[in-house]
Amino acid sequence: MRGRDAIHLRGLDFYAYHGALPEEQVLGQKFLIDMDLFLDMSKVGSSDQVEDTIHYGEVYQVIKACVTESRFLLIERLAEEIAGRVLGQFSCLSVRVEVHKPQAPIPGIFRDVSVEIWREAGGQT
């Protein structure tokens, strides 16, 4: 069962400037991020010590920096940036990142557009 434990961050809401269209890069829009961090939590389950887990407040700050301090044409690239930074800075076995773009420039009625990626520590997909 190693790696089946997870920390979930849901509905992280940011205003940023990602998009392939020039208007998106000037006007910006809302982006929502969902992330799952997969790790073995058996040690922290016994110790009850924050140093034995991944501090989700710190993960939030990394995600926030990725979304608000960088600019990408594609949300696929943003998802990769988030996954890479989180895997590089925290002791998780793998991550799932979903980037939602609810105001994507699509001429139609829709609730949401999103991309989802899964990445493992060590660069495996």
Task: Characterise this structure.
- This protein has helices at residues 22-27, 42-47, 56-69, 75-89, and strands at residues 5-16, 29-39, 94-100, 114-120.
- It has 125 residues and is of the alpha+beta class.
- Strands 1-2-3-4 form a four-stranded antiparallel beta sheet, with helices on one face.
- Helix 3 runs antiparallel to helix 4 (75-89).
- The longest helix is centred in the middle third of the chain and has 15 residues, at 75-89.
- The radius of gyration is 16 Å and the shape is elongated.
Q: What can be said about this structure in brief?
A:
With 125 residues, the protein is α+β, with helices and mostly antiparallel strands. It has helices spanning 22-27, 42-47, 56-69, 75-89; strands at 5-16, 29-39, 94-100, 114-120.
Please tag this protein with its features.
4-stranded antiparallel sheet; 4 helices; 125 residues; 33% helix; alpha+beta
The Rg value, from CA coordinates, equals 16 Å
Strand order of the largest sheet: 1-2-3-4
- Morphology: elongated
Instruction: Please tally the β strands and state the result.
Output: 4
- Provide the residue-averaged pLDDT: 94
Give the termini distance in whole angstroms: 19 Å
Percentage of β-strand residues: 25-35%
| Low-pLDDT regions | none
Class per helix and strand makeup? alpha+beta
**How many individual helices?**
4
Give a quick account of the main beta sheet: strands, pairing sense, barrel closure.
Answer: 4 strands, antiparallel
SSE string, helices as H and strands as E: EHEHHHEE
Share in helix: 25-40%
Architecture blueprint of SSEs:
Layout: E1 5-16, H1 22-27, E2 29-39, H2 42-47, H3 56-69, H4 75-89, E3 94-100, E4 114-120
Helix pairs in contact: 3-4
